[in-house]
């Protein structure tokens, strides 16, 4: 009799375990719509507020971002749930070709049915095919890239370090972060655009125009700052302003990204390839910044400072346009073009600037 009772209790609990969750249908619709791209599958399962926010164009932009980044969606599985007031928060593991994403789906009961009220990406983990690197470790690679660029100039003969100008370069990075970004965001705030997904939802032409705007604001703003502070300086001193700017970016930006990832909880790891690419990018960008300040200082002394400023700002703008387009679309073509143009421009600048900086006699006194 006891054995029968135990068996009945076991079957009872098993029945509860296998029972469908009340929001399973909405979760399945979320998966099927993301897999197929058919918004009509998802729309009936959205609550009224979600229908207003997660429109078909927004859905398509969101899905396109996922597919371009992580490949086709393959499967999904429930992991856990929690409750917050009237909402049920369910976590699902979505398997894409290139990564596993933990999606947080928020449901609430509406007229006896559970509707999707929110959708967030909680975590991104690489698939077994590519090893993941914890974010704190991955963030060190861009820093190492900047430091390696510093050592490159040191080994090329620029062994007298101008610390004041190096610190000035760091300071200019902070100015850039606090001033450049708000300038870039002004037109988007006016248009009510709050995220990259909103930009993508407006179509390919708007993405291109957005990339150009972001790229050229960055180009003219940063080269303008360096021009103001490097003119009337010796070439070697100007080099350290640019070097400080590049190393400052390589250190400050990853630290800000780390704080953001810890605050939001995403992503806990990065792929090895993207980590190495981040280090290489910071190395090249630091070389670029150092080289441009040499050119700006030399051009100002020789009467063509404004022409040099305009040319370098345009070159910088083109590089950052491709970079912005990649950030928005994850287009591999844009990524490749970013590095091709960055490498080509950096090599041309250094080939032109370094001999002039080496030939110049060191000044004894430096005044900002």
From TrEMBL:
InterPro entries: DUF3887
Keywords: Membrane, Transmembrane, Transmembrane helix
Pfam families, per database record: DUF3887
Listed Gene3D superfamilies: 3.10.450.590
Domain of life: Archaea
Keyword Membrane applies: yes
Annotated ranges, domain DUF3887: 28-119
Segments traversing the membrane: 137-156, 163-183, 203-225, 237-260, 280-300, 334-354
Keyword Membrane: yes
Protein name: DUF3887 domain-containing protein
């Amino acid at each position: 009799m006891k054995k029968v009772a135990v068996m009945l209790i076991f079957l009872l609990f098993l029945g509860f375990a296998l029972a469908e969750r009340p929001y399973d249908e909405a979760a399945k619709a979320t998966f099927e719509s993301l897999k197929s791209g058919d918004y009509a599958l998802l729309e009936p399962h959205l609550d009224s507020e979600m229908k207003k926010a997660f429109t078909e164009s927004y859905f398509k932009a969101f899905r396109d971002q996922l597919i371009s980044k992580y490949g086709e969606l393959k499967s999904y599985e429930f992991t856990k749930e929690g409750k917050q007031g009237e909402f049920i928060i369910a976590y699902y593991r979505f398997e894409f070709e290139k990564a596993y994403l933990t999606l947080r789906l928020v449901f609430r009961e509406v007229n006896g049915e559970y509707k999707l009220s929110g959708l967030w990406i909680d975590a991104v983990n690489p698939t077994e095919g590519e090893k993941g690197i914890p974010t704190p470790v991955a963030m060190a690679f861009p820093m190492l890239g900047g430091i390696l660029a510093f050592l490159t100039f040191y080994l090329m003969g620029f062994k007298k370090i101008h610390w004041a100008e190096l610190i000035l370069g760091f300071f200019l990075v902070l100015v850039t972060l606090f001033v450049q970004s708000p300038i870039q965001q002004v037109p988007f705030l006016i248009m009510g655009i709050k995220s990259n997904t909103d930009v993508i939802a407006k179509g390919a032409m708007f993405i291109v125009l957005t990339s150009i705007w972001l790229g050229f604001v960055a180009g003219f703003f940063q080269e303008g700052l360096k021009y103001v502070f490097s003119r009337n300086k010796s070439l070697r001193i100007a080099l350290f302003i640019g070097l400080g700017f590049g190393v400052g970016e390589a250190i400050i930006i990853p630290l800000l990204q780390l704080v953001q990832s810890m605050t939001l909880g995403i992503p806990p790891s990065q792929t090895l390839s993207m980590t190495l690419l981040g280090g290489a990018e910071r190395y090249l960008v630091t070389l670029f910044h150092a080289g441009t300040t040499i050119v700006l200082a030399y051009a100002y002394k020789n009467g063509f400072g404004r022409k040099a400023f305009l040319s370098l700002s345009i070159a910088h703008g083109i590089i950052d346009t491709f970079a912005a387009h990649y950030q928005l679309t994850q287009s591999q073509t844009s990524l490749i073009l970013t590095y091709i143009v960055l490498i080509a421009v950096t090599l041309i600048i250094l080939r032109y600037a370094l001999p002039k900086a080496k030939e110049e006699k060191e000044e004894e006194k430096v005044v900002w």
